[in-house]
Amino acid sequence: MTDPHQVPGRGGATPPHRDPTEWGRLVESLDIASVFVVIGSWLSPKLRAVVSVEDIWQDTLWCSWRDREQHEWQNLSAWRRWLLSIARNRVRDAGRTLGRRKRGGDANTAAFSVLAGDESVSSLLPPGSTTPSRVVGFRERARAMEQVLATLEPDLRTIVQLRLFEETPTREIAEQLGIPLSTAKERLLRGVTRYRHRLRQLLGSEHSGDQLS
Question: pTM score, two decimals?
Fold first, then answer.
């Protein structure tokens, strides 16, 4: 399928992730619920008690807009992977903050969205960014995805999350898991088929979205 956000052609067009008028549409074109699933998988139970997926996502959006000049636009998938790399760093920062608090260190270090407040964070982003009400809907859908993922066998669940949610290339997954590429492809096919079927059963085909495409 052709990416609707390809590299801007010649003529000096502003890349969409740097254009305030395109920012909101670009964010909304992501399957944000699947991003929430990935972020949630990185949060330990202890970390979830002090920071939410929504906090990490707000921080990620703010950091990506602040540092937009650091990313060279290729397509939507590459931008999504860049956002996930920022989110992973925010999760690591939150983990280090929690560790310092446990050791009696600086207790004033917190997620940017906690310090500034969700409304303040939104005011620093271009118009049209994800609204709090839509975030609630994304989180509900993410919970359904997580529920279905949990029903898969561990070997299938891992490969489905890596490929479908984190967009890791299949060859890289095989290397990471130490299995033949043919085995990775076979597990991926079985896992994705079961995942999509069960998600359709849970949500209904009208509400199952990109994860069933």
Answer: 0.78
